[in-house]
Amino acid sequence: MTTAHQVVFVAPGRMEVQEHPVPSIGPDDLTMRVRRVGICATDVHLLDGHLGDPFPVVPGHEFVGEVDRIGADAALARGLRPGDRIAVEMLVPCGRCDRCRQGRYNVCEDDDRAAGGRGRQYGVNMGGDRAPGFWGGYAETLFVPGEAIVHRIPSHVDWDAAALVEPLAVASRCVRRGRVGPGDRVAIIGPGPIGLLAAAAARAAGADEVVLLGTRASRLELGLSFGADDTIDTSAETDVVAALRSTLGGRTADVVIETAGSAEAQVQAVRLTRRGGRTVLAGALGSGRPVTFRQDEDILVREVEIVASFLSAGGYEPALALLARGDFPFARLVSHRFPLERAAEALELVRHKRDGVIKALLVPQRAG
Ligand SMILES: [Zn+2]
Ligand SMILES: [Zn+2]
């Protein structure tokens, strides 16, 4: 019997590398050999127990790899065979609820109790004890049932760049939710991986001017390679609205995308939006924290449209197209690579933002 290794978060603050038999597959299923998996701040929150109680859970939702074994019906339906390079979406839609039927499978209404009302997400809320296991990317193998959404990775996109497909899909959804189009002036708050990728996605969507706002000079600098025309170091400005106005020739932004995940950034996002413009709130604050807006001055009389953008639904197609075009130096975002058994060290690096980390990856399979 073949076995595979995976990292299991067994309880808050406790993780182990475990070896389990690779599950057998039915006609609709496949298994994927994981080539790269991105480490996300979400994984740190998951380990700390801030995302409910999914334990035991195999983390990792930013994975790419190649088809290992595939059932006959899956091979036919998906047009895939062993060895094909694929990206599997982290959201597993039920395909039956009203939201899934609308294509909004990021807010799938199935599985409410088991998953805390968030639908099924690989590496986040699909418990490690749910049969047949292998529901997370920190592993040599991933189990992929018939309802999972699978995309082919173009052959010229290398694994490091391909590993950015999930955060780029999240960024692409933000841009789509903000209806960014030709001529738009776009401000993006937060120069983390999602913010940098949102700059690239906004540029690709035709934005006229893209301004990246944040506090880390090296990150802001990097933004200039990812579609940003200008940057604003918000820690150096007493009036950020005035700073954006002066950058944009007296105007504020048609669309503001907030990816920083702080209450302050969300309030700022609304104020940086022009009258009648659109604010996209995409950052997670951590559970239960309220945000206070000046409803009349900042929202009502300026009729600012505020939308949320959650996860990656509909984002993989534009993300893969963008990766395939290669207009941006995506692989530069990959700052670190670790083998599976050093996952704990990698998570601490991400937690403390040490060593200039941008995106750290695990490389579970040695070859390739
Ligand atoms: Zn993530
Ligand atoms: Zn659903």
TrEMBL record:
InterPro entries to which the protein is assigned, alphabetical: ADH-like_C (IPR013149), ADH-like_N (IPR013154), ADH_Zn_CS (IPR002328), GroES-like_sf (IPR011032), NAD(P)-bd_dom_sf (IPR036291), Zn_alcohol_dh (IPR050129)
Keywords of this entry: Metal-binding, Oxidoreductase, Zinc
Cofactor: Zn(2+)
Single GO MF descriptor: oxidoreductase activity
Domain called Alcohol dehydrogenase-like N-terminal: residue spans: 26-154
Domain Alcohol dehydrogenase-like C-terminal, chain residue ranges per copy: 193-324
Domain of life (superkingdom): Bacteria
PROSITE patterns: ADH_ZINC (PS00059)
Family statement drawn from the similarity comment of this UniProt entry: Belongs to the zinc-containing alcohol dehydrogenase family.
Name under which the protein is recorded: Alcohol dehydrogenase catalytic domain-containing protein
Organism: Pseudoclavibacter chungangensis
